[in-house]
TrEMBL record:
Record site: Transition state stabilizer: N149
UniProt-annotated site: Interaction with DNA substrate, residues: H248
Name recorded for this polypeptide: Exodeoxyribonuclease-3
Active site: Y106, D147, H248
Superkingdom of the source species: Bacteria
Keywords associated with the record: Hydrolase, Magnesium, Manganese, Metal-binding
Family: Belongs to the DNA repair enzymes AP/ExoA family.
GO molecular function, one term: metal ion binding
InterPro entries referenced in this protein's UniProt entry, alphabetically: AP_endonuc_1, AP_endonuclease_F1_BS, AP_endonuclease_F1_CS, Endo/exonu/phosph_ase_sf, Endo/exonuclease/phosphatase, ExoIII-like
Cofactor(s) essential for the protein: Mn(2+); Mg(2+)
């Protein structure tokens, strides 16, 4: 089973890119982030025509997440993290797909830091960690996946010394990520590429893509039931080089059958 995550940075504006990639890569399950579209404007017709079912949580202009499935049915479980009822940002979606609980997330950026946006990021991370602990108690296959907006280690960022005060790399955020993983999750891409620099995001400025000056901020965290089923994974880096593309590249893993 091929499972992918892709921050599309605007699902309607970059729909041709998304459809081209879906046809090329043929993932079985896809999590999308940054839809930047209200619920009624999600391009479900085009997605269906490409061979995918979908559930999505949209929001006008900002945020938004979706889960796509090529074959298996999608059973939506929930579309908000517990713990902050007044939070109306569309950043989280859970669904059962093919026997796996897929948790699609778009963690807040948090800049500028320090400040209210950074505080919100840390609170959101704490809520995610609490939810993740609950999910592990269910003793079922679970994947937390999406744009975490954190580079866990210096290996995950080009020239880390330039990012020390950024909300994606501050010690509090990296500590939050490692605390989450320490519950018993497997960082799939880092497990497959133990000592390699592998990036999932390249800024539009300063020829970042051409210079391979990237960040690894899109992650898969696997529950213990899936750790031994991880076969392979990678980044479809060339998609970042397409015209009018997202600043993220699609990231994927392959999970074996039981």
């Amino acid at each position: 089973m091929k499972i992918a995550t892709y921050n599309v940075n605007g699902v309607n504006g970059r729909l041709p890119i998304l459809l081209r990639w879906l046809e090329m890569a043929k993932p079985d399950i896809v999590c999308l982030q940054e839809l930047k579209a209200p619920q009624e404007k999600f391009p479900i017709g085009a997605i269906n025509n490409a061979g995918y079912k979908a559930v999505w949580h949209g929001q006008k202009k900002w945020n938004g997440v979706a889960i796509l499935s090529r074959n298996a049915e999608i059973e939506e479980i929930g579309r908000a993290l517990p713990g902050e009822e007044e939070d109306v940002q569309s950043r989280y979606l859970e669904a059962m797909v093919g026997g796996i609980l897929i948790c699609c997330l778009y963690l807040p950026n948090g800049n500028p830091a320090p400040g209210p946006k950074f505080d919100y990021k840390l609170r959101w991370f704490d809520r995610l960690t609490k939810r993740a602990s609950t999910l592990l108690e269910f003793n079922i296959p679970v994947i937390l996946m999406g744009d975490f907006n954190v580079m866990p280690t210096e290996l995950d960022v080009y020239k880390p010394e330039k990012w020390v005060n950024d909300a994606l790399f501050r010690p509090e955020v990296r500590t939050a990520f490692h605390t989450l993983v320490a519950q018993g999750w497997t960082d799939a891409i880092r497990t497959l590429y133990k000592d390699e620099r592998i990036y999932t995001f390249f800024d539009y400025f300063r020829n970042a893509y051409e210079r391979n000056a990237g960040l690894r901020i899109d992650h898969f965290l696997l529950s213990p039931q899936l750790e031994k089923r991880l076969v392979s994974g990678g980044v479809d880096r060339e998609v970042r080089g397409w015209e009018k593309t997202s600043d993220h590249a699609p990231v994927w893993i392959e999970i074996s059958e039981k």
